[in-house]
Amino acid sequence: MSTVLITGGAGFIGSNLVRSIAHAGQHRVVVFDALTYAGNLENLAGCIDGSAVSFVHGNILDADLVHRTMELHRIDAVIHLAAESHVDRSIASAAPFVETNVAGTLIMLEAMRTFGVSRFVHVSTDEVYGSLEPTDAPFTERSPINPTSPYAASKAASDLLVLSFVRTHGVDAVITRCSNNYGPYQFPEKFIPLMTLNALEKRPLPVYGDGKQIRDWIHVDDHCSGLLFALEKGRSGEVYNFGGAAERKNLAVVNEIVQLTGADPALITHGTDRKAHDRRYAIDATKAHNELGWTPMWSFEEGLKYTVEWYKAHPEWCGHVRSGEYRSYYEQHYKTSL
Ligand code: NAD
Ligand code: DAU
What we know:
- The protein is an alpha/beta fold.
- It has a single domain, classed as NAD(P)-binding Rossmann-like Domain (Rossmann fold, 3-Layer(aba) Sandwich).
- 41% of the residues lie in helices and 17% in strands.
- It is built from twelve helices and twelve strands.
- It has helices at residues 12-24, 63-72, 87-92, 95-114, 150-169, 191-200, 220-233, 250-261, 286-292, 300-313, 315-323, 329-333, and strands at 3-7, 28-33, 53-57, 77-80, 119-125, 173-178, 180-182, 205-208, 214-219, 239-242, 247-249, 268-271.
- It has a seven-stranded parallel sheet with strand order 3-2-1-4-5-6-10, sandwiched between helices. It has a three-stranded mixed sheet with strand order 7-9-11.
- β1, α1 (12-24) and β2 form a beta-alpha-beta unit.
- The two termini are 22 Å apart.
- The model has no long low-confidence stretch (mean pLDDT 97).
- 2'deoxy-thymidine-5'-diphospho-alpha-D-glucose binds next to α6 and β8.
- Nicotinamide-adenine-dinucleotide (NAD) binds at residues 7-8, 10-14, 33-36, 38-39, 59-61, 81-85, 100, 104, 123, 125, 155, 178, 180-181, 187.
């Protein structure tokens, strides 16, 4: 059985991935996470047992700890998700994005080289391609890199570093670029959980600008299955796009959430637009389909309905995230036992 190090495994996508790997039982997992504001060990409640799934509280900028973890746990493969991930925060302050997303990825690459890790899956984003016009064809892996926000620029820089390590040092790495995820355990600074929780709490639903921006939504389970296909079957040095084939205008998504929650449509407000707001993302995932055998399973309508139901059914998780209590979960439940 191989051991996979999952950086950022206490975040939204990482925790869904850890759960799905633990459920399948094919790999041992070591979660490596700094527990920034976006990391929440409650996302992994009932999952960490110190054997099939272990947890290391650490920052990827701490090269010594990364090295010790790889050595101690005899890591075979890395799925690298740890990142600063929110565009609005990168507009407010870009430095943490360069530190974690660029310098942190470099530390991970150096460590995998030193310890002969056999595969590195670098989890990137469709935002590196920039924005599409309404009639443009969806992004393919050959679309030019043209990032808009500091977040997207930092992810693009990390992608190029990964490719440079494949070419220069011959490490084995694949890059994945996925569109907008939604699903359980997503921190409510992102569009769908923010709108869902606000709707359930009868608070305003703050749409940026005209709300006609388009995102290609994918259920997090489908992204996670793509990452596992990339781990098993991806070719080193290649990029694979994943998308949900579900382009929707932001306003249409808010309206669906209003319907699913029974909220008052008058809660929808139009505020100041995001700076340099990308107008449209759309993904052509033909390569992942043909080479990896990957296909998304969720329709957006079913996925969104299930997701809204999940937030309704988990008032404790939502309450802890809203109040900030989630930040002490690690001290309360794990710190002394691991
Ligand atoms: P998230 O913000 O929910 O989670 C990020 C996790 O990384 C958190 O647990 C956080 O504590 C951890 N982290 C941050 N800085 C760290 C550091 N220096 N050292 C160790 N851990 C650190 O993010 P997410 O939405 O789950 O995204 C995960 C990855 O997937 C990111 O790389 C992101 O760029 C990429 N991605 C996200 C989406 C999306 O729609 N959310 C789409 C495509 C790609
Ligand atoms: O495309 C993949 C990317 O998707 C990931 O790489 C990022 O990590 C992830 O955060 C996401 O980026 P976006 O900027 O597209 O997601 P966000 O949820 O922040 O916003 C989605 C859309 O909704 C976007 O057009 C901005 C708009 N929006 C967002 C918020 C938070 C609003 O209108 N109001 C809001 O309050």
